[in-house]
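I hope you will forgive my troubling you with a question about protein structure. I should value your view on which stretches of the chain appear to form regular backbone elements. Here, with my thanks, is the record as I have it:
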Amino acid sequence: MPLVPMKAILDATEKYNYAQGAFNVNAVCQAKAVIEVHEMFRSAAILQGADLANAFMGGRTDFANGTLEDKKKGALNIANAVKKYAETSPIPVALHLDHGKNMESCVAAIAGGVHLCYDRRLVSAL
């Protein structure tokens, strides 16, 4: 199924009173593994890409000094991988930016298909 807004997953946790993990992924193989494990348990999955991880996924080995272009490229790379695995998955999958460093980093993540949430309210989604 296509990516779902994280709000939908969080609303279900509140309605049915259960905890939901969210897992940072820094590589395509990690994204695949997180989704596969959640499929085994028939549980929704929230995957997160962090600001520095986006720079790394954009090809920046010195990811602490990643440029906005590195982050845009990385956000798109991880989002494409998560979307690919989510499309064939029977579980709801959301992609979230964990700790955007600044507005530009958040915009780069949104361009990659990441949902940004604040206070359990969906702020922006593509």
